[in-house]
Batch of 2 targets.
Target 1
Amino acid sequence: MKYLNIAAAKPKVGVFSLTCCEGCALQLANKEETLAAFLSAVDVVNFREISSDKSDDYAIALIEGSISREDEVASLKAIRDRAKVLVAYGTCACFGGVNRLKNVLDFDWMNREVYGETPKATSPVRPVREVVPVDFEIPGCPVSKAEVERIVTHLVLGLPFAYPVYPVCVECKQRFTVCRFDLGELCLGPITRAGCNAPCPAGGLGCWGCRGPAEAPNYEEFLELARSRGIGDAELRERLSFFGGFDSAYELAQDEPLAVRPVA
Amino acid sequence: MLFRVITKEAFRKFVNTLLSEIEIIAPRKVATDYTGRSIYHYLPVDRFEDVALDYDTTRFSAKTYFTPFKENLASYSFQNGDWTQSIRYRGVTRLILGLHACDINALLKLDKVMARGPFPSPHYIARRKNTLIIGIDHDPCAGGFCRSLGTDTVTHGFDLFLTDLGDRYFVAIDSDRGFSMLQEVENTEVTEDDRVEYSAVRRRIAKGFTTHVETHNLPNILDIEFESPVWAKWGAKCLSCGTCAMVCPTCYCYGVSQEFSMDFASARKNKQLYSCNLYDFARVAGDHNFRARTSTRLKYRYYHQHRGFVETYNEPMCVGCNRCGNACLAGISPPEVIADLHMEEKA
């Protein structure tokens, strides 16, 4: 198969889930209008959400989810050994994601809360790159299928792919969204990598940073800005630690108790 | 230039008649900010009552209706080892109602680059020619410094331009299209009273400016202050978010990319407006970045606006609307940055 004399590859792909909601895998099986074309461009040999076939012969492994148990380390290392290219996809795989919130809690207490008298083995949550070498990361909670398609079209034609380096603000402006800061709210848009087309601010929710930091973010000024709008460091820390991509910004904010707000 | 007078009631009927014929873009209130100030956008309107002609400024300029944030430049389809190209220009007439003088002056500046420059854009020309413009005078908006840049009045680049005389509008006609449109509506000759009132309104507006930017000798001062600590000071604040360029009525820099469809049967060439403040604006092959520092990128936006454009076109690119200053979350505004440069000169 050739397009404009460029031979297209049809790589064998395995899709694997670690600790997560499998929402990113669901995204891969989503967007029905181009799903058939998507599945023709790649050869899916292992993907439990769409097929019961299970093959260990794949060139590309897509990993969603974070690592929260030791047995996941073993299976991840086995996948790394088999795959030529290992892709961490989704915020959990790239940064630890929401699961990472457990790292600051007492593990015994947490185990009892969830499993009662039958505790399970558990370990601190880690992103994929802290366990095995990662060749490529696709951030997002969930990943954007449109972006995955762009990456795949580049991949099969052998063209370089680059994420936007700029923050979400550009995309908000380009769709006429009123700035959440103008409405007196907190938004991580000015420090978060664009590429999602800014659906959250347009839908009425300030950015929570699921795509991780933009290139060369200005954390000091961002914290100044938030403080000047009356947002406390505790709220900033809560927001910055939510998805896990902003550790160095988190460290710049002060450790202070979160103000208790009345529940509506 | 021809002048006529039209009552506000006649104007309302006029707009409603136009609404049944063409798309109208006009200032609309979309939200109230946390300080209680109204936020307006230029958006399509369905009825005259949605139009906020008494708006102070919009958060976004109207440039997106001429050089859109995202625009398809060409489409390609691949068949039997060959390909075909398809290019579509926007040919549908629409009206932008309520543009202020600064924004019409901004279009005149864009015309010089996009319509009459060495590489004219047929996409821009199609949109410009097919867009009718009815502008309107207004009392100075907070922070606006258009008078410092000579863009607080406008003498061409529109079809009709209104000045509010209370119960009626004083109308300047600048095109045969504008003249023809007025034939459809009741209007009168300008009387001595109208002239006197118009002059009084213009004097009131001219006296109302509170923000001044010293542009005297600015291109030379920018050159002299190339290494000034002023750039490091403001650069340290810059979030490199590109908001200033997005809301600016004259920033036109863009990037072009190509995108395949998932079935590889077609592709699109897309244009996207960009900003010189974004990290990779001057990044080139080999990952070399000529402007890796925030302060350098910020500086070059001022250089393009107030120096480079002056060298080419004998006028600054900036029209003094201060949208960039209003929108900047880090509080960087041209009046303050330029005042700092002048202080540096005197020090």
Target 2
Amino acid sequence: MSEAVLPPVTPSGAMIRTLGLVATVCGVLIVTAYEGTLDAVNANKKIALERAVFKVIPGAAKVDEYVATATGIQPAGAAIPEGAVKFYAAYDQAGGLKGIAAEGAAKGYADTVRVMYAYDPAKQAVTGLGVVSMRETPGIGDKIYTDEAFLKNFEALDVQLSSDMKALANAVKVVKHGTKQNAWEIDAISGATVTSKAVGRGINESARKLLPLLVPNLEKLKTAPSPNAQSAVSPPFIKGGEGGFSTVSITHTLTHLSQNPPQPPLSPPGGIEKGWRWQAHLAEEVTS
Amino acid sequence: MIPGQKQLSNLEELLEGVWKQNPVFVMVLGMCPTLAVSVSAMNAVSMGLATTFVLVGSTFLVSLLRNVIPKEVRIATYIVIIATFVTVVDYLIQAISLAVYDALGAFIQLIVVNCIILGRAEAHASKNPPLRSVLNALGMGAGFTVGLFALGGVREILGAGKLFGFSLFGPDFQPWVVMVLPPGGFFVLGAWLLLFNWLNSRKTDAAPAKPAEGHAHV
């Protein structure tokens, strides 16, 4: 205000020095906290994710993260490529594919409703629903995970693909309470229509994008029946996300190798991921 | 708000925030997280502890640096320090429990603008040595935690029939849902303020020159 009148004006050097000192101390503190908690945070996230997947796919023993892109499917790495859809493959104790889980999200009444749904490739249907996060009105919107009748919609919600495998045969639709007629319709909760619709939209959006990319490549996800590979999987090895994935993909590479000996070397130049993509191409050729 | 010239003992310094200047019930500060997060006792206590951590950490650092910080840039310095501790507590909560992290949502980051913390840095830590600042911050944090718990506990009991997630009344209890909705926060806060002001005015009845303190801030 009256800086010109006040005799003791702090020189800017002192201000810069102080701010620099404080910023340095703070930077060190933040980095220390980040490094110190990183492992615990990642472990927590993994547990939370597994819990969410296990909830919608009962009997699953381990979960691997994948992304589906236009060129096929590959294990989810640090960077998710443009246009890719993330999904989770759940395996049972013996290493067989139990089901696929993916997340859907849509705007609800208060905030985005994020759900995890299970997709059963054999039935071509959604077979389970879990809520990842929501801030809907307690007692009303939260019926989407407490209302038995509503959850019945997701025991066999039809999401089969159209004959050209490019889109869903029937879009998942939320209908007024009590008017469900088709297997691809969701009977809304009366009084919580907005939230019910958000669930339906979330599943529809996600399934519409994911399934056309995923279904042609489903074979890649089924663990090879080779008994050697399965016995080689020791329990701690299953636990880690990385380990779990490489077991599966190496098994695949081996099976393919035995079928097409001259094709790629066991560890292709681009690493295992390349191998995956190559397999995906093969699959497309076979199916088309 | 500044405790006058009279020197308080260390114990008094600690208890200042818990009772006489309780941030929730007397100063009525930090209402935004108070109302938003106190839907359950667990959330309320987690938020209280997170805020206490930030309070203690930032007042300690501010108090250590109080003679180096030029007054022209003091607010900027305080905010940087507070933001640092908020970031640290953000990581810590993620490491401890993702469920709590999700429940508290954006309100963890918003601790940075909680006026209790900047208020303590400006009004107390910048004028007192580290030990006293930390004691004062601990008391304020405890007072805030107690205040949040008083709201969160009541709201969870009435609105969900539970306390810390344990069912209290059995399955036949019909929850009073409005209590865990935003209006419930105001109802419960109003009831507590009423109680505190009534207690205060009863105490000050003997000295009628000083009416209940809380009013001015509401």
